[in-house]
Design goal:
Layout: H1 2-21, H2 27-52, E1 57-58, H3 64-69, H4 77-96, H5 100-103, E2 106-109, E3 114-116, H6 117-136
Parallel strand pairs: 1-2
Antiparallel strand pairs: 2-3
Helix pairs in contact: 1-4, 1-6, 2-4, 2-6
Length: about 140
């Protein structure tokens, strides 16, 4: 089980390096970075709530394409890149410091039923994979 969690964390660790290694980014790639950064911030908030609250309730997150369609690139690109690195680092740090019990914490969900923290991480990794496919494509 621990290896599965470590694999999820490693998936998230690779993305900032891919972004930095791409050099100057065209407007479409910048929009992709802004979208994944926004999703990182949402994921971090949701996972912190799962760890800290006794009975959190989570909303349904937009799909990758919906999130991308609603993302605008901020004017300060250096601040965007720094904020992306910081938020992703905070997210990975949170995940690395979870106990095995934390990974199984649950919340109710708008889609009905319960969702675990590991479910949330897996969903975020899928979003990140869609980002990388489009970013590198």
């Amino acid at each position: 089980m621990l290896d599965e969690y470590q694999d999820l964390i490693e998936e998230l660790l690779g993305t900032p390096g891919i972004v930095r290694g791409a050099g100057d980014l065209d407007p479409e790639r910048l929009r992709l970075v802004a979208a994944v950064h926004q999703r990182d911030a949402l994921a971090l908030d949701r996972m912190q709530r799962l760890v800290r609250e006794t009975s959190p309730h989570l909303t349904i997150l937009p799909s990758f394409d919906d999130a991308l369609g609603n993302t605008e690139v901020p004017g300060d690109l250096a601040a965007l890149m720094e904020s992306f690195d910081t938020t992703r680092g905070d997210l990975v740090s949170l995940l690395m410091n979870l106990t095995l019990k934390d990974w199984e914490r649950t919340a109710t969900h708008d889609a009905g039923g319960e969702v675990t923290l590991v479910d949330e991480v897996e969903q975020h990794v899928e979003f990140d994979e869609a980002f990388r496919a489009r970013f590198q494509g």
